[in-house]
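Data deposition worksheet. Section B asks for the primary sequence of the deposited chain exactly as it was used as input, without tags or linkers unless they were present during the calculation. Section C holds the resulting structure in token form. Section D is free text for depositor observations; keep each observation to a single sentence. Incomplete worksheets are returned to the depositor.
Section A, Depositor: J.P.
Section B:
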Amino acid sequence: MSRQIETKGMWLGFVGVAIFSLTLPFTRLAVTELNPAFIAFGRAVVAAGLSLGVLWYRRTPLPSRVQWRALLITSLGVVVGFPLFSSMAMQQVPAAHGAVVLGILPLATALFGALRFGERPSTGFWLAAAAGSAIVVAFALRQGGGSLQPADLALLAAVFAAAMGYAEGGRLAQSMGGEQVICWALVLSLPLLLPVTLWLGWHYGVTASPQAWLAFAYVSVFSMFIGFFFWYKGLALGGIARVGQVQLLQPFLSLLGASLIAGEALDTRNLVFAAAVLAVVATGRRMSVKR
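Section C:
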């Protein structure tokens, strides 16, 4: 039964990753016409409005004091930090470049899970996670001509924020459910982000093409809201470290999305890296993780 639950968690995590994989391509489209901070905070405001509707419809009770503390950390990571830093980076580099730099996110998530909540992955698991991360970092260096670009600092900050929010939210989802975690995290941020978003919209303007607004709608409804329903549920069932490794597929799903959505180049060498990462994910799936 435990194996079946972990497998279900892996599949739920994969659905969440598939939804998240289009975040950078759509953000890349949106930042060409809209302010990146407006996109980062505005998407959270839209998702918070949806969250209020869900919480009201389900008559969800208020979180406990301990849960509020964890929700604050989750909110700082996935509602504020990751959207802001990734939007800033998408002004400077293609979505394909951002996708591969974010490939180290699975290792960062596992580290947060181990340090914060006492998960103890085996040595083989760490070797598989490190190998997968090394592959995607090597890919990023190849794309950048052998060096990391200034925007990579913003992307690394986005990795740190997302890993913190994923680990904290995934742990909290074990006691209150994935839907409640992201809904309350969004609602918690609303009093701060709503006035900031309104000011940004007034100061920088909100005139943009339907294409840009469609991209904004995707990152608001799917990346910031629906995707987390699957992701946090998967982390809760399968464990932060193990399910977090599914994120190794995200860079290559994002590359495909960047090609289809933003018209960025996709060559056969990308498929070679994708195959290597798939092999590492399959290997890591077989390694033990004590919880």
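Section D:
The radius of gyration is 18 Å.
The chain has a mean pLDDT of 85.
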